[in-house]
Amino acid sequence: MTDSAAWTRVPERGGGGAMRLMARIALGTGWHVGHVLLHPITLFFLTTSPAAQKRAVRRYLTRALGRKAAWSDLWRLYFCFASTMLDRVFLLSGRTAGYDLTIEGLDLLRDAAASGRGVVMLGAHMGSFEALRAVTAADAPVEVRMLMHSAPGGAADALFDSLDPARAGAVIHLGRPEAMLTAQEVIDRGGVVGLLADRAPRTERMIPVPFLGAEAPFPGGPMTLAAILKAPVVLGFGLWLGPRRYLLRFEPLAEAIDLPRATRAEALRSWLGLYAARLGEVCRAHPYNWFNFYDFWQETP
Questions:
Q1: Are 208 and 13 in contact (CB under 8 A)?
Q2: Residue 137: pLDDT above 70?
Q3: What are the residue ranges spanned by the domains of the chain?
Q4: CA distance 298 to 35
Q5: I need a labelling partner for 271 at 20 to 30 A (CA). Which of 75, 225, 228, 294 fits?
Q6: Does the predicted TM-score (pTM) go above 0.85?
Q7: Taking a C-beta distance cutoff of 8 angstroms, is the pair 285, 212 a contact?
Q8: Distances (CA, A) of 119 to 26, 85, 111, 131, 222
Q9: pLDDT tens, residue by residue, 164-178
């Protein structure tokens, strides 16, 4: 039996006070000073991370890179993660000057809004979802809401919500009676309902499908919710390419997710296989953007 909640036992690093201090320094002195500080911050978190976490990251990178991952590869992944966290501070506070955002496939969202038929956007813990939000808010008249399980937020969430009060309001909390009705209303208005489909926030059914050369457990919930909403499904990735440079990519996955009752398990596995296959391709092209710092394949007893 797979453990869908394994990632929740990876503790959040850094205190809330330290994170708020870093945000104030970055906003007060500017992005360039914040970027310089990322180097000692990355070194600290990489050298003090638990050995099990670094082993899990190294195994992922070895698969994505097609060669044995070196210490420098771990550095690049941790630095990429730290960079997206710094950029969140600026993007959420509306300071987008100096950012180079290349956008592909935005017409998928614009057409959905124009036709009044919304879309479900499946993402992953990859790059920056805040960069996707910044673009859709500025360049397309699209309402974007995230379907997420209700859970107490950590220091990072508290900080980011304080920078952009609208961020918390954009979340539709799964588990509440009105959640699916609210999501359907967003779809009916031509909006976007987003889900992160590579991680289960609580114990739920996990389905093993091929991913980067070996079977890995993916949650069935996001794909099932996409089928319930009966809307076109797109994939969305906000990929970090370098300092203040992002590739924001929207691409179609399905006109609709169909899970016939008679072949439900087989159909769900097939759709998850398509998602995992495309996610694997993106991981190989942008290996340092995938931020699952735990034993994703559950290879450690």
A1: no
A2: no
A3: 6-289
A4: 34
A5: 294
A6: yes
A7: no
A8: 35, 27, 10, 18, 13
A9: 666 767 888 888 889
